[in-house]
Amino acid sequence: MTDRLTRRSVLQTGAVAGGLALAGCLSGSSDDLNYEVWALDQGTNTGYIYEPGEDEDSFEQVDSIDFGEHQGEVPHMVDFTADYEYAVVACTAGARTIIVRTEDREVVANLETGPSSHFAGISPDEEYIHVDVIGEGTIKRIDADFDEEEFEIVDEIVITEDETVQDHGGDFEGRDPICHQYTQEGYSYHTLGPSYHDGGLVIVDHDDFSVEKVFHGDDDDVPTNCGTIPHPTESKFYTTAGLPAEDPEDGVGEYFVFDTEENEVVERESTGGVDAHGFWYTPDGEELWVLNRQTDDGLILDPETDEVIDEIDDYGRAPDIMWSSPDGEYMFVTLRGPDQQSGSPHAAQGETPGFNVLSIEDREIVTTVEPDPIDDYTEEEIEDGDVLTPDFHGIGVRPIGDYDSEIPNSPPF
């Protein structure tokens, strides 16, 4: 597999100047096109895989992965290689990162990356995987050879010990890496948290794996603590900041826009709700959806102007992460369970663990998918800490075939 497609080769060989059309999104016969929805149930340590069903707005389970068999407790987030041949899953309670070959669902690597390994993201050249490790306050670097299926932890950044962080000043104890993505300029933006009060941002030069710049949530007034996504073609980057509260009036939902050439904040706006969390683009690159986990609502931004162009009234109870279908028809949104494994109980306690399917055109929920219905559990089982009950968090979509879309189905771009 020495001719595997990487994100960097996509950008080098086919970027269309001045527009959102990027190579790697070529048209194919509709008979050859399909996709899989990978939904992570961190409550039962299971990854469920669905495909579109024969009926309209229906989805059928085609496979599952027991991450618990690999000590992958609480599989939290998923990322894919550019060709979608491999999935990388960070497991918080398992303190590890698991790499899966997607075609046959085989685990090809299992690395102990540290307690509360929260997100593992593949670098644009696919030579490395960087892992945000909350429990150690570190960013781990994994040398990745996907062709040979060989992986090794080779370096780490300890936030509180880093020279750039120390030169900045301020107390960074307890401000730990949460999530990240990659910019057009060769940096990765890592939000800090987990709480809004622990927020901030670390910018890493991912070529030499060094901290370029840091923002302290309080001292620099940049308390971003959750979602990260780059603009597909421009020098912009988006993050979210969320604070749930027993009284929603005391909560926070914000998004930040950064200029990635200057590494500076250029906008800070309200998300119109409480506990801003997940982001995702529509495949035409014309809409950026953002959700609020506590108030179950959100906004749609125009990535060209960063103006609000629409609102989502209802994502479902306790939404978390989302990902679009490559045909532009649906937005998939995970729903938390009543016994949540992460996040504040004010924000993250759900009712129907699984994922909602929203029509991108209509902005409405068309289907709720519950792989492991909560109604099959008694109240006693749900309240019993020794009984594993469903609680969905991470989600990803794996295209099968070459879709004719304006931007790739997942960052980095």
Automatic annotation (TrEMBL):
Segments carrying the region annotation (Disordered) are 373-413
Q: Where is the composition biased (Acidic residues)?
A: 373-386
InterPro entries for this protein: Host-pathogen_enzymatic-act, N2O_reductase_N, TAT_signal, WD40/YVTN_repeat-like_dom_sf
Query: Which cofactors, by name?
Result: Cu cation
Quote the protein name from its UniProt record.
Cell surface protein
Per the UniProt record, the source organism is Natronoglomus mannanivorans
